[in-house]
Amino acid sequence: MSDKARGRTGSSLGGRLGGRPAGHPGGRTREGTSARAAGAREPGALAQLAAALRTPAGAAQPLFAQAPKAWQRALPYLLVGTVVVSLLPTTIAVLTNDYGMDGGWAGALGVAQTVPLLLAVTRPLQAWLLVLVADTFGAVLLTQADKVAGHSWPWTPMAVVGYLVLMACLGLRESNRTLVGVWLVTGALGAVLGFFQPRDTMNTAALLFVLGGVVLALTGALRGLGDARQRIAEQESISEAERSRRTLLEERARIARELHDVVAHHMSVITVQADSAPYRLPGMPEPVQEEFAAIAASARESLGEMRRLLTVLRAPDGAGGADGPGGGGADGERAPQPGIGRLQQLVEATVRAGQPVELSLAAGAARAAPPAVDLSAYRIVQEALANVVRHAPGAPTRVSVTVDDDEVLVLVVNGPAARDAVVEPDGPGTGHGLVGMRERVRLTGGTLDTGPLPDGGFRVAARLPLQAGAGTAGTDGADDTDGTDDTNEERS
């Protein structure tokens, strides 16, 4: 359609150029935002290891199971394997040479005390039971060793090292109640063995009790921090989902309130026409007059029901019915619902606020659109301009409304950002941006297309069919009933 056929009207105001997009909360292109966010969120290897330490593993998962890289997930096995390979020959040599234990018994005891540590990565509690039994059995055997005098007992130095490694694995996996139980059992067993301590030996029960408690406390605190962060993340996810759902419900209630006004107007017209029919058409038969009276009574009853419904839908503060990009109040609730015919006033108000906007309005668009489409087109433009004012002050914006035989096309495009533009910081907003646009095009059976432009601007295009059900009730994300998409429209 040519500019002449459209009845082009324009208003523009020079100003500094901003570039946050119409209908877009952050004013950044999706690709640029993703790239910068990915670079900012990429932690180093040490940070990833620290996060893996804080992340609690599941019942059937090994330590570091949530680490992002394969070598990080294999690290616990490597460390524990290194400890076992180091402790096994050392334990056998010390038991044989220093304690004077028989070589066969020393080998068996060394295997029993060290090899179960390999199980600590996935099942530390079972590994602890095996090692505890082996260490206790070793302490009993050492009472009969030839050279036990002058050495550590009941726990040898190698047993202490292996036990502390086991305590660390336990602290990262088990609950605080389990850790306290393990610690108390360790102390109680050391105290019982103390009654059978050989002469001239150094009792290491207290040493293991203290060191084990310290390791359990540190690793347990680290695991508790991970648990707390995980719970916070889960609550934030739930809160975000609830907020998105609440945003969608609020916008649908707002649309319902506005449509009530449109339907109530037509019902009032029906009532007036039915009541005045006998006076405008004299000589009407009695049955016909009664029929018109019944129509008027039904219309009045319907209006009464709608007014009762309105008391529920209307917000106490009168939000949701005002005109202008972001206005609201009780006065707006009493005003007629706006439409395409009032877009010129909306653009002029936006221009007076310092936003350069150019309007192209097709001649006869307001008369051609049915009430629901007329209101939806106005609200889509209103929301888009509100987002430009909020997030892209000074950005040049073009608004175009055209109409053909089948549909009304609403197009809002803003330009790129200016370097010196002062914009609102990103954060949660009213929630009536693209969420509301999607709901309105779904109401009319139209389509909505939004996205960044190559020059850094943004585009909002809505197609609203003139016939109810003529379009496909779909948008770019219309099936997302929670009202969210990857452009974070809930912030706009």
From TrEMBL:
A Pfam cross-reference name: HATPase_c
Domain of life: Bacteria
Renumbered residue ranges of the record's region Disordered: 1-39, 314-338, 465-492
Substrates-to-products reaction catalysed: ATP + protein L-histidine = ADP + protein N-phospho-L-histidine
Residue ranges, compositional bias (Gly residues): 12-26, 318-330
CDD domains found in the cross-reference section: HATPase_UhpB-NarQ-NarX-like
Protein name: histidine kinase
Native organism: Streptomyces virginiae (Streptomyces cinnamonensis)
